[in-house]
Amino acid sequence: MADVSRRLFVKGAALGAATLSTAGILAACASEAKPAAEEPKADAEPQTQAPAADVLTPTKAPSADTASNFEAMPDSITTVGTTYENLLAAIEGETGATAKYTAYAEAADKEGFDQIARLFRCTADAEKIHIELEYNLAKEIDPATEKPEPPTIEPHGSGVNLISGANGEIYETSDMYPSFIKKAQEEDNQKAVQVFTRAKLAEAYHAERYLDAYNTIDTPSDDTYYLCPICGYIHKGENFTACPICLAPKESFTAY
Amino acid sequence: MADVSRRLFVKGAALGAATLSTAGILAACASEAKPAAEEPKADAEPQTQAPAADVLTPTKAPSADTASNFEAMPDSITTVGTTYENLLAAIEGETGATAKYTAYAEAADKEGFDQIARLFRCTADAEKIHIELEYNLAKEIDPATEKPEPPTIEPHGSGVNLISGANGEIYETSDMYPSFIKKAQEEDNQKAVQVFTRAKLAEAYHAERYLDAYNTIDTPSDDTYYLCPICGYIHKGENFTACPICLAPKESFTAY
Q1: For residues B4 and A84, which has the higher predicted lDDT (pLDDT)?
Q2: Cβ contacts of B37 on chain A, cutoff 8 Å
Q3: What is this structure's pTM?
């Protein structure tokens, strides 16, 4: 049974409190505050209805031992080898993803999709983080390990590119990494468990971000994407204080 | 080239204005308002940093003729027939999805995943809306059309069920419906174009909601899911005024 007692999001923190207390303040000093008080009155309906933003405030990093989304798909298509072989396979997968997203970012630029171009660039850099983590670990096992050459990618239109990206991320988060994590646990390779776990968790967020970008392809926002430099998690917008995967603070994130 | 000038989300409407003006009000009447004023001061840091919620305020329904996410996947696996045959195939697909999500909701209940159970129930009802739209149209072409029997579904764990659901929705939004829409356009069957278009757009949001639920499986929120009774769009939380697919007002939505 999963621990479902924790809440990562808190409702708008003091923003909500400030809004609630505004009514009381206005009642207490309506005459002094008239000019300021007229702003919210001008659009009174949304003032009471518009919700405060949820702010992601994680306090505990998920663990492969206890999280509820680490089961590999029943019809798994992943070939599982030793953890060293799995590291090589993961590096190859992440290298392909990096090449894809770099090409997709250029295609989005050409089509005028700024939001999508920024997301693909951010995600390409996220996958480079995974490559470095996995490559360093593989070199600990065999110092002669070399990085593969990136493939050449022919992008399609940005809509198709986003779906292609989402499909790849979903495969990695739901099948490849869960299978590799299980093997690393069997080998009691805790470093590999941690590296694969962080990548697995990040890929699922990438897929969600791709679908959001797909749904808003013609109605994009100018929200900033933020990349966690430790694990490759990507956040969209300002409403977070730390990484939900590794707890790195927002201040350490890179903006796109 | 897509029209990317439109913004569907507006930043927190009057909520932001109320928050901004609070400082002025506090300055103007600090002594009268002390008890209320202390609430925001107790957590002053987030008060200035916490963003207002984005509020989805759509004003224009997307069209298959102009939207940028209607291209079918280049490696399409969809068998395209006449629009009548495509309606039957869509009804069969949606009937399978409804049966899956109903079984997945029961599995989530048993595992104690309330957020996921609500989402699967909401999505099952969304697919029933698509079935009715497609069935009514198929009956206009052939009054003898009958609905298929739903399949029997054996659910897995909720993590796997969410991924299975997301994969199905992504296939429908990116391959099946775009292929059927293209055929309906060729046949100049505008009713079918509209029914398939709304279903296509709704499925992409369903996939995004499934990935959100997957990512927050152990840190769920108690946010309400809202189902559009016209097209099957699903919103999570309060921050919207109308359906981004068909513009139905929030007041007409069903809560889960």
Answers
A1: A84
A2: 21, 25
A3: 0.84
Which residue on chain B is closest to A164 by alpha carbon? B73
pLDDT at A11: 53
| Residue contact A25–B33, C-beta within 8 A | yes
Position B48: which residue type?
T
Four-point Cα dihedral B93, B96, B101, B107, nearest 10: -150
Give me the DSSP letters along chain A: --------EEESHHHHHHHHHHHHHHHHTTTTTHHHHHHHHTTHHHHHHSPBPEEE---S---TTT-SS-PPPTT--PPP--HHHHHHHHHHHHHHHHHHHHHHHHHHHHHT-HHHHHHHHHHHHHHHHHHHHHHHHHHHH-TT--PPPPPP-----HHHHHHHHHHHHHHIIIIIHHHHHHHHHHTT-HHHHHHHHHHHHHHHHHHHHHHHHHHTTTS---PPEEE-TTT--EEESS-BSB-TTT--BGGGPEE-
Task: Assess if residue B237 is contained within a domain.
Answer: no
Residues 6+ apart with CB under 8 A from B84: B138, B141, B142
Instruction: Identify whether A97 is part of a domain.
Output: yes
CATH assignment of the domain containing A136: 1.20.1260.10
- Domain count across chain B: 1
Instruction: Give the closest-approach CA distance of A162 to chain B in angstroms.
Output: 9
Question: In this predicted structure, what is the pLDDT of residue B53?
Answer: 80
Beta-carbon separation of A157 and B68 below 8 A: yes
In a domain, residue B69? The reply is: no
Is there a contact between A71 and B159 if contact means CB atoms under 8 Å apart? yes
Residue ranges for chain B with pLDDT beneath 70? 1-50
Q: Which residue of A has its CA nearest to B212?
A: A208
- Residues B23/A235, Cβ–Cβ less than 8 Å: no
ipTM value, please give it.
0.84
Containing structural domain, residue B112: 83-219
| Model confidence at A20: pLDDT above 60 | no
Cβ–Cβ of A204/B215 closer than 8 Å?
A: yes
- A19–B21 C-beta distance less than 8 A: no
Query: Mutation test of the interface with chain A: which of B218, B235, B241, choosing the one with the most A Cβ atoms within 10 A?
Result: B218
pLDDT value of residue B10: 59
The string of pLDDT tens digits covering residues A123-149 is 999 999 999 999 999 999 999 999 999
- Domain assignment present for B192: yes
| Best to test chain B binding among A1, A11, A21, A236 (most B CBs inside 10 Å) | A21
What pLDDT was estimated at residue A52? 77
Judge: B17–A6 Cβ closer than 8 Å, yes or no: no
CB–CB contact A167 B170 (8 Å): yes
Please give the pLDDT value at position A53: 80
